[in-house]
Amino acid sequence: MKRFVKIRKAIALAMCMTFVLALFSACADDADPRDGYVGSYRVIERLMGQEIDNYYVTIVKSGTHEKDIMINNFFNMSAVSARVIVDGNSFTIPQQTYIDGGFSGSGKKEGNTLNYSLNISITGGSTYNIECVATKQ
Question: Above pLDDT 90, what percent of the chain?
C-alpha cells in the first residue's frame, strides 16, 4: 500500500512539472514579434547603388491590425506613414499610395537592422527600385 501511495505521489509530481513546463513554453510563444521592430531607426536609401537620402523614422505597433507595424516619417516625409505586415523576421509593405504615386516592398529583419526593397511608381509613369537599410538607434 505504501508503494502505491509513493507511485501516485511520483505521478502527481510528474504531472505538475509537465504542466509548469507547458505553461512556461506557452508563454514564450505568446511574444509579439512586432516588439523587435518598435523603436527609432536611421534609414539610408539607395538608388542604383547611390545614396539618395538619409533620415530617421520611428516604428510603432499598429492599433488596427495585430500583425502590422507603422513606419512614421516614411520617405523622410512627416505626413507619410507606411503600413507593414510582420511575419517573424520577414515583412511585407503592401501597395499604398502617397501624394503623387504609390509604393510597395518587402524585407527582412536581421538583429537591429531592417533591409528592404521598395518599388515606387510616380504618377505619369516613372518607376524606381530603392534599396533601404534601417539601423535601430
Answer: 72
Residue 21: Cβ-neighbour burial (10 angstroms; 0-12, 13-18, 19+): exposed
Taking the C-alpha atoms of residue 19 and residue 27, their distance in angstroms, rounded to an integer, is 12
59-91 pLDDT per residue, tens: 999 999 999 999 999 999 999 999 999 999 999
Question: Which one of 3.40.50, 1.10.274, 1.10.287, 2.40.128 gives the CATH number of domain 33-136?
Answer: 2.40.128
**Buried residues in 104-116 as b, exposed as e (16+ CB within 10 A):** ebbbebeeeebeb
* Amino acid identity at 133: V
Alpha-carbon span 109 to 135, nearest angstrom: 10
pLDDT, tens digit, for every residue of 94-128? 999 988 899 999 999 999 999 999 999 998 889 99
Domain spans, the chain: 1-30, 33-136
List the grid coordinates of 22: 507547458
For residue 77, the 8-state DSSP code is: -
